[in-house]
Amino acid sequence: MPRKNFFITTAIDYVNDKPHIGHALEKIQADVLARYHRQIGDNVFFLSGADENSLKNVRSAEKEGIKVEDLVKKNSGRFYKLKEVFNLSYDDFIRTTSEKHKNGAQKIWQACKKDIYKKRYKGLYCVGCEAFYKEEELENGLCPEHKTKPELVEEEDYFFNLSKYQNRMKEIIKNDQVKIIPESRKNEVLSFINSGLSDFCISRSAARAHGWGIDVPGDSSQKIWVWFDALSNYINALGYADNGKKFNEFWQGENKKVIHVIGKGILRFHAIYWLAMLISAGLKLPDEIFVHGYITVDRYKMSKSIGNVIDPFELAEKYDPEAIRYFLLREFSPIEDGDFSYNRFEERYNSDLASGLGNLVARVLTMAEKLKPEIEKGTAKEPTNQGFKKIISFLWEKRKNSLENFKFNDSLSAIWELVSFSDKYIEKNKTWQESNRQAEHIVNLLIALANIAEMIKPFLPKTSEKIFGQLGVKFEEEIWNFKINKGKPLFPRL
Ligand SMILES: [Zn+2]
After folding, report:
1. What is the pLDDT averaged over residues 460-481?
2. 153 and 98: one domain?
3. 302 pLDDT band (50/70/90 cuts)?
4. Which CATH number belongs to the domain containing residue 424 in this structure?
5. Is the per-residue pLDDT at 1 higher than 60?
6. Helix or strand or coil: residue 141?
7. Are residues 167 and 84 in the same domain?
8. Would you state the pLDDT for residue 46?
9. CA of 240 to the centre of ligand 1 (A)
């Protein structure tokens, strides 16, 4: 198969606050996809970033009594730190205050010019969402996302002629030209389109923006409104402003796939506004938009005011970050909201990682060490046992299908079927007892471990590396000569 140019993005977060565990979830999900596509040989570009032009930053900086530039720099750093702590394999982290982003945002504005006009406007504005709401979209007069009362704003702004794209948008979403996953979110977008698309505001007065943000080309009394600005980060990171090589490779190219990973709160902006902007600018569309669920704590959305925010860095100080990756991917439905609890975390850790994978690796390697000379002369890559052979090829397929459908939890549970198959094999064949087939049994188990290590690579990259280190083989080698080197337990019991 030819290598595909595969571009995966996360949402760029508002940096006016600290990241919570939900931010980590999204970045880890996208990281798994990026690593998986690298594993199958695709040419991958993985992007994350920070949305620094939001009005919220101005307000936070005012509250803290510091310059906005300093606030966003400090706060973006906290989001960037997720990369280090959770071993995220971003190829780039774009800040919307960077030159390449500013130039790109202004370029796409120019490219959409035929659909842009100015009008006097009065509307209900939620600063949290950076969006105007219609009266009927509010819940009891409050923003459905933030449960806060929107402000009444009146000024002369630029608008984008979205209504013109009503039918086109409907076709694109209905026919999966841009596929929205899951189906329920696709239907949500369709019903929003069917309710009638209105033109949307794409600028605000420089005065209301406190001078913060990107100038509207040719009109410095106006700043580009945050969504029109922020959404273009995806192509700006690839060098849209200078029509760069990466832009032509990963966005405009023929053999490409673009996937946006986002939360449900920003679905409309991605599935409607962004696509309409791209059409207007004469650019290609992304291929898929994957919408993940939220992590709740005691059934509530995390928020500072409730005081139930799970800090991913505090969590990573207490527990192995690989175990946190595992828990977030395995415990929650990728598309539904899921409730976080420390109890569940520790239960899963002990059952799946300590007693499950960790124990299996330790057990097999202990047996292998005793028969080192006999085992290390073996050169098998396929198990001699038919049951093993079958389940390994079946699970590779199952993992692939689940991963390509964003079912991270199902792919992990498929891999863990091989863990429990191996445990049963040990019991059934009493592989710890001396017999003339003992070495053969152990080699079969080592082969299973090598397959597990390769399968978990996108999910638990460091654990995968540790297992291969203990086995002394590389998965891509034609012939395996195990060099047994039993290490420390992978996941000590809590
Ligand atoms: Zn809101």
Report:
1. 95
2. yes
3. confident
4. 1.10.730.10
5. no
6. coil
7. yes
8. 98
9. 30
Would residue 398 show up in a list of annotated catalytic residues for this protein?
A: no
Residues 378 and 237 in one domain: no
Active site residue 390: no
Whole-number Å distance, alpha carbon 301 to ligand 1 midpoint, is: 13
Instruction: Please give the radius of gyration of the chain, using alpha carbons only, rounded to the nearest integer.
Output: 25
Candidate list 113, 174, 304, 381, residue with the active-site label:
304
Burial label, 20 (beta-carbon count in 10 A; 0-12, 13-18, 19+): buried
DSSP string, 269-286: IIIIIIHHHHHHTT-PPP
Q: Please identify which of the residues 23, 100, 101, 457 carries the catalytic annotation.
A: 23
Identify whether residues 156 and 266 lie together within a single domain: yes
CA-wise closest residue to 327 among 89, 450, 494: 494
Inside any domain, residue 85? yes
End-to-end, the C-alpha distance of the chain in Å comes to 44
* Domain annotation covers residue 79: yes
Q: Is 201 a catalytic residue?
A: no
Claim to verify: residue 43 and residue 146 sit in the same structural domain:
yes
High-pLDDT (> 70) share of the chain, %: 100
Q: Which domain holds residue 55?
A: 5-314
From 299, 314, 329, the end of a domain falls on 314
Indicate if 310 and 361 belong to the same structural domain: no
C-alpha 293 to ligand 1 mean position (Å):
17
Does residue 135 form part of some domain? yes
Active site residue 143: yes
Specify whether 20 is catalytic.
yes
pLDDT digits (tens, 9 = 90+) for 419-467: 999 999 999 999 999 999 999 999 999 999 999 999 999 999 999 999 9
> Which of 52-61, 111-120, 320-329 is the least confident region?
52-61
**Ligand 1 centroid, distance to 290 Cα (angstroms):** 21
Domain count along the chain: 2
Distance 364 CA to ligand 1 centre (A): 53
Percent of the chain with pLDDT over 90: 86
Q: How far are the Cα atoms of 59, 61, 153, 226, 347 from residue 17, in angstroms, in the given order? A: 11, 11, 24, 17, 31
Give yes or no: 112 in active site.
no
**Which CATH number goes with the domain that contains 140?**
3.40.50.620
Residue 322 located in a structural domain: no
Query: Which 3 state secondary structure label does DSSP give 260?
Result: strand
Q: What pTM did the predictor assign?
A: 0.94
CB proximity list for 371: less than 8 A, separation 6 or greater: 438, 439, 442
- 482 CA from centroid of ligand 1 (Å): 57
Quote the pLDDT of residue 273. 97
219 and 166 together in one domain: yes
Residue 125 CA to ligand 1 center (angstroms) comes to 8
In the chain, how many H helices and how many E strands?
A: 20, 17
pLDDT of residue 304 exceeding 80, the answer is no
- Active-site residue 126, yes or no? yes
63 an active-site residue? no
CA of residue 156 to ligand 1 center, whole Å: 22
The larger pLDDT score, comparing residue 301 to residue 406, is at 406
Calculate the average pLDDT of the chain. 95
Co-location of 379 and 273 in the same domain: no
Q: Which of 37, 143, 246, 398 is catalytic?
A: 143
